[in-house]
Amino acid sequence: MHQKEQKEPRSTDAEQTPSFFQKWQVATRPFALPASTMSVVFGTVLAVTIGGADFDAGLFLAAFFGMAFLHTGSNLLNDVFDFKKGLDKQVNPVSGAVVRGWITPGEALKGSTLFLAAGTLIGLYLVSRIGAPVFWIGLVGVLIGILYTWGPLPLKFNALGDLAVFLNFGLLGSLGAWTVQTGSLAWTPAIWAVPMSLLVVGILHANNWRDIKPDKSGGIQTVASVLGDGRSEAYYRFLLLFPFAFILLVIMLSWADGLRPRMPLTFLITFIVIPKALTLIKKGKKRFTPDQPQDFIALDGETAQLNLLFGILCTAALGLDALLTAVI
Hints:
Layout: H1 20-28, H2 34-49, H3 57-84, H4 105-130, H5 132-147, H6 161-182, H7 188-192, H8 194-210, H9 212-217, H10 223-256, H11 274-285, H12 299-327
């Protein structure tokens, strides 16, 4: 939801009737998928470069699309329950097919079921290839995705959404991808994915921070609504800056205290996006007097861009370290 001019639940603009493809492109929100799939890419590259696994392209694609399908299914399910609870009343530029009246809640629910089923089937295929470790990781992930907005205690509505996103789109994604390639569990993919996971939480928090008032009026509790506006700003600053401090800490521990495996020094290349993080923090600080009207409204989208850049740099750091090791 966005705090901008109020619009009717169904679009009244004189616009062409969207095609089937356009409707479902808006409904499925493919632009949001890097938030979840980046952890799969990172975990896979980590397994090959640090874990010594032989890259299996088929298993990677299965893990990648499995995550994408589950994420999409969860998003559609989220839209259904938000609409039914009266939370979605505004038309957003790149999402909101249900609130626009382009698809019905029933159609969104069917789409959600289809995507969740496809993701689950892919997961079962991976279980058949790898075994029990993948099953338990996948089971936890699917349950979190379903319970995010469904059940007697929806995670999203009870200030547990941040934890759900931290686990599903960060730690579990990286750990699952590592396990798919190596066949075994390890602490490395979970620990090294913490910085990326925090930035994914930053995307959700930016959205919830903006929506504190409408969420409270709808009886919804998020971490942002619990913290309030002022402390939400401090929390956002933590989510964007602590990932860099965490990388420094892991590098120092692994090189000074013998923690294995060592985090490569090439991870310091992630620091080149600190200026972007500081720019976003400044936009959050100036939320009441923004330089541009959309600065705070679009903060979640810009945080998603930061997360994508950060994830790419983390993955590139692994590749660069492998290249330097081979040359030296």
